Amino acid sequence: MTAKILEGTELSQQLMDGLKPRIARLVKKGIYPGLSVIILGEDPASLSYVKSKGKACERLGMRSETIMLSEKTGQKDLLTVISNLNTNPRVHGILVQMPLPKHIDENAVLEAIAPEKDVDGFTPVNMGRLLAGRDCFRPCTPNGIMVLLEKNNIDPAGKHAVIIGRSNIVGKPMAALLMQKRKGADATVTVCHSRTRKMADITRKADILIAAIGQPGFVKANMVKKGAVVIDVGINRVRDPEAEKGHRIVGDVDFEKVKEVAKAITPVPGGVGKLTIAMLMQNTVLAAEKLSGQHHKT
């Protein structure tokens, strides 16, 4: 049995196309959904990600700006930049690219972003609303995974979902989304992390296994139950002298071996990463609709 490949590229394009009529309605009223991304320093992976966000905005006819700051920028100066964006009516979404330099307090930065412009879904207000099952901006990667499962007719209801990783970006919000009492969720969720004992015993019980640990090829075939759905969130650069750039991108899952055991699996690249960008665009459009009074709950 070779697993079905859960492609994110085509689905991402469909989701982006679905945003076009909503953007057109806003533009008709003179509102151009605007995303402002702040980046400190020149980390190659972060720069590449920020660039792809800008390109996605461009393709959709949205307004985007990247605010490049030195990695030596002080916290007070960064908070001033955020404060100015909070009050700028042309900016609907604010995103501060993580990770931040060591001297910056990440919590203080997230708390400074206006919750109604928090298109990453990371402010305490949106995180709290997410946990309570209320309307909020959902973090982009976990929400992308939920859409991927839904579009591939994989219903988590009653299934055992195991998440490897407990970050605020993926692990925790992923668990919150999967355990919600609603259609497309209702899973029994276990979260594993660096202190988990006998992890393979737990992962082998997973009907849905989500790897978000940031370690290349961490999940081996003997850690996966036959017929499980495997979602690989990892994006790791590994050296490869034969590759054009001297490196290649791999996930947290040993893809070639695990695809022989799993029922379905996401590739890296071309899986979850593409959906993260689509969800960010969706959140930015939603923020523009809400801030301009054009949002109608369905």
Quick synopsis:
Helices cover 38% and strands 16% of the residues. The chain is an alpha/beta fold. The protein is globular.
Task: Provide an overview of this structure.
The chain has 298 residues and is of the alpha/beta class. It folds into two domains: 30-114, Leucine Dehydrogenase, chain A, domain 1 (Rossmann fold, 3-Layer(aba) Sandwich), CATH 3.40.50; 140-273, NAD(P)-binding Rossmann-like Domain (Rossmann fold, 3-Layer(aba) Sandwich). It is 38% helix and 16% strand. The chain contains ten helices and eleven strands. It has helices at 9-28, 44-60, 75-86, 106-112, 124-131, 140-151, 171-178, 199-203, 255-258, 272-291, and strands spanning 4-5, 34-40, 63-69, 93-96, 160-164, 188-192, 208-211, 229-232, 236-239, 247-250, 264-265. The strands form three sheets. It has a six-stranded parallel β-sheet. A three-stranded parallel β-sheet has the order 3-2-4, with helices on both faces. The longest helix has 20 residues, at 9-28. It is globular. The model has no long low-confidence stretch (mean pLDDT 95).
